[in-house]
Write a structure and sequence with these properties.
It is built from seven helices and six strands; from the N terminus they run E-H-H-E-H-E-H-E-H-H-E-E-H. The protein is α/β, with parallel strands linked by helices. The structure holds farnesyl diphosphate (FPP).
């Protein structure tokens, strides 16, 4: 049984830019990959706390489209860790009824982790206690450009009409088509930027920056961030009442 933590309001969709694995490792004179291994432990702890809080959608930036430019050894290790994470996590996802999802251009992933990812997605597709989305080979500009290309093709083939295009229709062409926009975005490691992450979807998200490096981001840290969210007044551009 999952314990429950009660907040007056929690985000329905929490998105996280998990940053600082490399610096965490460097501070300890360790290989960067050790930082990513510790980062996966944080992801597990955060996923379980998210469930305790009743959050329905968790999206994490696991690998950006720009991350392909990292040294080959680091990219290979991250792909290996991704596959290992998916294999080890599957029983927990099933036990906790978590649906796994992805956003990003996964065609660029190597065959083996891609196959494992699609298998885990298939095995968890009926679950709905939490939707855990991995942003993999993800870049927001690429997502928006791809959506525009698909729409242009659909206009050309008379599937849709230009007059019918509105924000709802546009959103349905994005990778995130099946989920609500994030309400709360956390970025760890002290960097204060968005790094091409869900640019369209975070239009009205509350943002929280913490200096904590991702491998040190604990359950306690997440609860602190959620307490901060609880106090925010969201106006969505309207005036105060
Ligand atoms: C940023 O740290 C993090 C990433 C590049 C990816 C996040 C990856 C993980 C948490 C582990 C892998 C997760 C899965 C599911 C495989 P950084 O390397 O940019 O750190 P730095 O900015 O300190 O160098």
């Amino acid at each position: 049984m999952i314990k429950k933590i009660n907040f007056k309001n929690v985000p329905s969709h929490l998105a996280i830019i998990m940053d600082g694995n490399g610096r965490w490792a460097k501070k300890r004179n360790l290989d960067r990959i050790k930082g990513h291994i510790e980062g996966i432990k944080s992801l597990r702890a955060v996923t379980s706390t998210v469930m305790e809080c009743g959050i329905k959608y968790l999206t994490v930036y696991a690998f950006s489209s720009e991350n392909w430019q990292r040294p080959k050894a680091e990219v290979n290790s991250l792909m290996y860790l991704l596959e290992e994470y998916l294999n080890l996590e599957l029983p927990t996802l099933i036990k906790n009824k978590i649906r796994l999802n992805f956003i990003g251009n996964i065609e660029r992933l190597p065959e083996s982790p891609k196959k494992t990812l699609l298998n885990v997605i298939d095995k968890t597709k009926e679950f709905n206690s939490l939707c855990l989305t991995l942003a993999l080979s993800y870049g927001s500009r690429e997502e928006i450009t791809t959506a525009a290309i698909k729409m242009a093709k659909d206009i050309k083939s008379n599937k849709i009409k230009i007059e019918g295009i509105d924000e709802n229709l546009f959103s349905s062409y994005l990778y995130s088509r099946d989920m609500p926009d994030p309400d709360f975005l956390i970025r760890t490691s002290g960097e204060k930027r968005i790094s091409n992450f869900m640019l369209y979807q975070i239009a009205y998200a509350e943002i929280y920056f913490t200096k904590t490096l991702w491998p040190d981001f604990s359950r306690k840290e997440l609860i602190r961030a959620l307490k901060n969210y609880e106090k925010r007044v969201r106006r969505f551009g309207k005036s105060e009442v």
